[in-house]
Amino acid sequence: MLNQGLKGVVAAETSISHIDGEKGQLIYRGYEAKDLTKSKSFEEVAFLLWFGHLPSAEELEKLNGQLIKNRYLTETMKQVMNHLPHNMEIMSVIRTVISAEGTTDYGWKPTVEQAIRLTALVPTIIAYWYNKINGKSASEPNDTYSHVENYLYMLNGTKPTKAQVDGLETYMILTVEHGMNASTFSARVTASTESDLVSSITTAIGTMKGPLHGGAPSGVIQLLEEIATPDNADKVIREKINNREKLMGFGHRVYKTHDPRAVALRETLLASKGEDEWLDLAVHVEDVAINVLNELKPGRALYTNVEFYAAAIMKSIDFDPDLFTPTFTASRMVGWTAHVLEQAENNTIYRPESVYVGEMVEVAEK
Ligand code: ACO
Fold first, then answer.
1. Which top-level group of life is the source organism from (predicted)?
2. Same domain, 297 and 160
3. Domains contained in the chain, number
4. What pTM value is reported for the model?
5. 25-38 confidence digits (pLDDT tens)
6. Which residue lies with its CA nearest to atom 41 of ligand 1?
7. Which atom of ligand 1 is nearest to the CA of 254?
8. CB under 6 Å to ligand 1: residues?
9. ipTM above 0.90?
10. Ligand 1 atom closest to Cα of 178?
11. If we measure between CA atoms, which residue out of 225, 179, 186 comes closest to residue 209?
């Protein structure tokens, strides 16, 4: 039987995460992701995904030290970036620089230490490149800051506020892992040939780069900018749906109720919100859109997805849209590497089949 895009095909058993689209649950190793955002740091969640349990104080201290130590770019990485064309997309830069890390140290089997190193490097690669192309001097990592705090610091050169760190950390925890999505699957396919972790991760980055996957929240920002004021919301939304346009930030292939990541991001944003017209507009647009979608598209169960409030988070920390997909990549490094480690534990090479629909042609005799 042919399953276009492997839709509905179960490709692996995993104990890393589970998505219940009917209940609107995203589970990481038995814990609801949205609950983890309330009391756990990015580092604690990364430990959970890599090691299968939440860290003790001692284990967390060790992981923090490893992440901090591995934040620094090698001279080779800087040289590579200094030679890349100025107009290269950041995703291609990350893919290239991670590739430059692929030395013989990364043989089969992959290790958690390698996973930690690659995860620690990505924010520094993004910040180094982003500062370089914007004519700013590079900020070296700050060893006293957490993973997320340091990422914001390296991009802006100043200590971020608590609200900025909380917003981005919630986003990064919620996007750290999401089952057998295209990039995670591609990482597992590469690992299944007993290739090295760097190769699996460069495969995944290349897959994430495509707009159908790493789709940035930019479309949501455009929608909110077009609506501009709350009293326009109903009119603009009706026009779009009547014109058969999709509302960006609404609907999901798997979630047929609220996307738990959107719910958690909304809670975080509202908890730390001061005067914020942009966020007020987003909340208003969500309410209006759900009502209008329910009226004009009855029975389709359309709600906000993670992209909707990710856009609000990105806007509140004043992130350039060019940084959206790279930031998603920085968080998803944890999920990818955890899956590669899991694949390596019980490996079978992926080798699906195809159906030949071409012609049969006789070779003419000489
Ligand atoms: N706005 C308006 N109508 C919608 C939307 C939307 N955002 N999403 C689905 N619908 C409607 C469709 O028009 C269709 O209606 P019909 O039955 O009258 O033809 C019905 O709901 C089912 O739509 P499908 O496209 O079949 O739903 P599917 O589950 O395949 O699509 C998808 C999911 C691709 C996410 C879709 O909802 C969409 O394009 N949303 C907008 C883009 C977006 O926000 N993408 C980010 C997703 S989250 C992520 O990737 C991390």
1. Bacteria
2. no
3. 2
4. 0.91
5. 999 999 999 999 99
6. 248
7. 29
8. 215, 241, 246-253, 297, 300, 302, 305-307
9. yes
10. 51
11. 186
